[in-house]
TrEMBL record:
Transmembrane segments: 12-31, 65-85, 92-111, 117-140
Lineage, top ranks: Eukaryota, Metazoa, Chordata, Craniata, Vertebrata
Species: Equus przewalskii
Keyword Transmembrane helix included in the entry's annotation: yes
Source species, domain of life: Eukaryota
Keyword Ubl conjugation: no
UniProt entry keywords in alphabetical sequence: Membrane, Transmembrane, Transmembrane helix
Name used for this protein in its record: Transmembrane protein 244 isoform X1
């Protein structure tokens, strides 16, 4: 056998995923609330994290709140996921993002095709993975899982 990786039991993976999803949306709504208070936006509803139909304009305060809260949420969650999943931040980041896209499609009753929404989501995901994985590597450098490629 060339590659030996211990796979966590499915219950642990599912539990970690559920914690990451709850953490993601808790941070999202907290940052969204702070953004609304800071920019004095009083018209966003509970479904704001799933809104991809807002007009993308720097003059539109609602759009700025949604964009900034998305980016800040992804950035902060990249670091918070380390507390739950240690060095597997990239895997859970992608999984949470896929679930977010599915929930967004379900809530809005259509698949998001707007390029500005995908750009914000993609850049946030890159922030989450790069920031989280870098910090995870620094924190768990001695315990990081490396594949055994000598016999490959």
């Amino acid at each position: 056998m060339a590659l030996r990786i211990t796979v966590a039991p499915s219950k642990v993976v599912l539990q970690n995923f559920l914690i990451c999803v709850i953490l993601f949306y808790a941070v999202y709504y907290a940052v969204l609330g702070m953004g609304c208070m800071t920019l004095k936006v009083y018209e966003l509803d509970v479904l704001a994290p799933f809104d991809f139909k807002t007009n993308p304009s720097w003059l539109n305060t609602n759009y700025k709140v949604l964009l900034v809260s998305t980016e800040v949420t992804y950035f902060v969650c990249g670091f918070l996921f380390i507390l739950v999943v240690e060095e597997w931040v990239w895997d859970y980041a992608i999984s949470v993002t896929i679930l977010h896209v599915a929930i967004t499609s379900t809530v809005m009753l259509e698949f998001p095709l707007t390029s500005h929404w995908w750009a914000a989501l993609g850049s946030g995901l890159i922030l989450m993975i790069c920031g989280g994985q870098t910090l995870a590597y620094c924190l768990f450098k001695d315990n990081f899982i490396y594949p055994d490629l000598e016999e490959f």
